[in-house]
Amino acid sequence: MSDASTSAPAEAPFAYGFVLAKVLPAPEFKAITGAKFLDPHLLTAITLIAVGHSRQETADAMGISLTRLTSYFASAAKKLRCLPRMSLLVHRTYSHPACPSPNRLSTNPHLDANEWMVLLAHTGGITLNHLSAARMLSLDSLTRINRSLMDKLEAKTPAHAVRRAWQHGLLPGTSSASTEPTAGGTT
After folding, report:
1. Which residue segment(s) compose the domain that 132 sits in?
2. pLDDT band at 165; cut points 50, 70, 90
3. What per-residue confidence (pLDDT) applies to 14?
4. Helix 158-167 with 139-153: angle, nearest 10 deg
């Protein structure tokens, strides 16, 4: 039995579909709303974070409190068997065999070794502070590398960078599931 704070509203076939329709290309919207591996409210919250929304923007778009949103992320993390860190949740969601791939982009940015290190840290939910201590690199250096990575991927947040890396086919499992690049804007 699910906790009432994490239960999806029952009135719509795909709760919050109207929210996703605003941020996803039509083919991806159709595919994601048919996904059954996560409850719609959890998938919506992760998707909004993945497209670059902040926690507050996500809560506002869904019409819920930050406390409820946090409980959604905790529930999703439990189902995906990971920590409730945004970039890790995005990566685990896209890695799930039942998750449709995000629309592919036509360009592939070149990442140097340090940018790859930071991107892979993001996919694992590892913070720059933790990476700094583990790799004995200055936080200032990692911040510069992260900024360069974000610029190359045109990402707003680490979670958005993970989505963009999936869209570019940079992460494992993305090359075999290629789709047509989006026409026009990229999300």
Report:
1. 113-167
2. very high
3. 59
4. 40
